User: Which sequence fits this backbone?
């Protein structure tokens, strides 16, 4: 098969169905951009989980005099010095503990005033109302249950809190948004496929005389199909290029410039350009193969006539 013939037929097909081809390119670009964005969002969530889960701690809050009156876990009164020493000794014996930090009520009060200095409650609190605690960093953050089982309900312990729980709602929301993006991407892919199928059908119908002559002179099915498949693949390639541009521009303006989320939220470990470079090959593969496969399946019906 001559490459010149295929290229000329691609040019003819694109010119005859310019509007529909443009619609295919736009829909493929948007759907692939959503696909790439969803994959990058999932990578970002996983990166944030690894970043924050490595820093979260288990907090063992100790009873004070105020808790003794209001909290059933502290019904026997405030924690004693002996109970604190025993808690610290038991923590040191556990092989899953990396570090243990004791925060006194005065330190907790100071940290609260620093973090919530604008809060109207800051002036009404006193150091004796704050809880002292042990902040435990685990070698494996998933071993929280070991600490909870060992210290929950113990005399002098008001509560054992895993800071991971404070992050779970955020991560669930981000994952929900990611699934929504995947759902929208799936809808856009369906729209793109329908446009591709209709474009191929219109192209095949407009060139039915040429294809009929080619059948009469003994041309193979693959020879007849190839210009249509190449045309669809070329439109998909243009759509993939558009999606790649959207992803690169979006990543640059969101993180590196423009909105500059990296500067506004320095505590978040944003994904780098390497994550984007891993996604782009998949975008191009799907962008080329999906339209080509859709065209191939659609044309099988017409070549049997």
Assistant:
């Amino acid at each position: 098969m001559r490459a010149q013939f295929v290229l000329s037929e691609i040019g003819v097909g694109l010119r005859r169905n310019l509007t529909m081809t443009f619609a295919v390119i736009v829909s493929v670009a948007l759907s692939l951009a959503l696909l790439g964005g969803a994959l990058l969002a999932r990578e970002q969530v996983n990166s944030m989980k690894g970043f924050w889960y490595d820093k979260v701690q288990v907090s063992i809050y100790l009873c004070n005099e105020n808790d003794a009156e209001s909290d059933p876990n502290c019904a026997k009164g405030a924690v004693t010095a002996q109970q604190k020493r025993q808690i610290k000794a038991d923590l040191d014996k556990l092989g899953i503990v990396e570090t243990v930090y004791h925060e006194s009520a005065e330190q907790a009060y100071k940290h609260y005033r620093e973090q919530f200095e604008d809060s109207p409650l800051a002036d009404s609190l006193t150091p004796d109302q704050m809880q002292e605690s042990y902040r435990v960093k685990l070698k494996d953050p998933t071993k929280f249950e070991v600490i909870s089982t060992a210290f929950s309900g113990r005399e002098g312990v008001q509560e054992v809190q895993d800071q991971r729980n404070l992050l779970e709602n955020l991560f669930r929301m981000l994952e929900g948004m990611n699934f929504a993006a995947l759902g929208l991407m799936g809808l856009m892919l369906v729209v793109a496929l329908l446009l591709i199928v209709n474009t191929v059908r219109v192209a095949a119908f407009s060139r039915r005389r040429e294809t009929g002559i080619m059948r009469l002179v003994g041309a193979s099915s693959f020879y007849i199909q190839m210009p249509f498949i190449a045309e669809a693949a070329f439109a998909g390639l243009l759509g993939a290029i558009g999606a790649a541009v959207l992803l690169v521009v979006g990543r640059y303006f969101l993180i590196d410039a423009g909105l500059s989320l990296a500067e506004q939220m320095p505590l978040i470990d944003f994904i780098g350009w390497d994550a984007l470079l891993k996604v782009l090959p998949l975008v191009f593969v799907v962008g080329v193969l999906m339209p080509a496969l859709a065209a191939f399946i659609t044309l099988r019906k017409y070549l049997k006539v």
Remarks:
- The longest strand covers residues 97-103.
